[in-house]
Structure formats: C-alpha cells, structure tokens
Amino acid sequence: MDSKKMKIIIAISIVINVILIIVMMTLKQGYMEQAQSVVASSTKAYTDQVAKVVNSQNEFIAKSNAIWQLIFESLQSGDKSQTAFKARLAAIDTAKILQVTEVSGNVQIACGEGCNVSFVFAGGNLKSVDYSALASIAPEQEYTLTAPPAFQFQAK
User: Fold this and answer.
1) What is the number of domains present in the chain?
2) Among 16, 106, 144, 152, which one is most buried in terms of CB atoms within 10 A?
3) Does residue 150 form part of some domain?
4) Helix (H) or strand (E) holding 130
C-alpha cells in the first residue's frame, strides 16, 4: 500500500474512534441518570419507612420513660395521696404525651394498643399499681423494618 492510502485509513480510523468515544460518553451519562433516578425512588420509600419507625420508637421511648418514672415515684414516695399523684403526673407529663383516663377515682394510662397501666386508689391513697402490661411489651416485635427491594435498573 502506498502512503496516501495509509494516511486516509488512519484519518478515518481516528475519526471513527472519536465518534465512538463521544457516543460512549453520551450513553454513559444516560445510564448514570437512569441509575440515579432508580436508586433515588427506591431508597425514598425505604428511608420514609425507616423515618416512620424511628419516630414511632422515639414516641414509645418518651411515653414509656414517663410512665415508668411515674410508677417509680408513686411507689417510692412517702405521700401516696391522689392529689400528690396528680401533681407528680402533671410534673412528669409536661409535654402532654400520656393518654390519661380516670374511672371512678382510679387512673389508667395508655401505654400502647390494648395496654394500660392502672393506678388504683382507695380512700384517696394509692393502693396498687398494675404495670404488668407495660412490662410485657416487646418493642422489637412492634417496630420492624422490611428489607429494601433490590434495585432494578431496566428502563421504564
């Protein structure tokens, strides 16, 4: 082959290689955008679920801590009168997170779904506290997360 044909072949080869590199970069950008959008949409649902569980756990912890503190202070206090109990309840539940109901002088505090702590008063004084429902709560069963779905990178 003569040198003119070789120069033409090399020039055409360089042009084709440059075009292929440009096409690859363009496709790479498209694949990257597609992957990022799939990851963003897939992880948003999972992070929303995680945030919901974490918020529920925080509410459970705050409520349980307040109830346990009220139980401890009520049982350890020298003043077991109902007025002292109400004062302790007001001091502990400043954020108004506890659901308190009073039925015929006895106080019940909701500690979850179907869970109540009962403070029984007789003659204006605290007689007993039933916190067995609170002690039997298993939060690890109530607050669970499902595994995130596998990423699917096919075009939609």
Assistant:
1) 1
2) 106
3) no
4) strand 125-130
- Classify residue 22: in a domain, yes or no: yes
- Name the H helices within the chain: 3-76, 82-92, 132-135, 139-142
Look-up: residue for tokens 């400043």?
A: 94
In a domain, 155, yes or no: no
Question: What digits encode the pLDDT tens for the residues 30-64?
Answer: 777 888 887 888 788 888 888 998 998 899 899 99
Reading phi first (left if > 0) and then psi (alpha if -120 to 50, else beta), residue 104 is in left
Residue 9 in domain: yes
Beta bridge partners of 128: 120
Q: Is the pTM of this model over 0.85?
A: no
Amino acid (1-letter code) at residue 45: A
Max alpha carbon distance in the chain (Å)?
118
Q: Which range marks the domain in which residue 9 is found?
A: 3-138
| Residue 115: strand, helix, or coil | strand
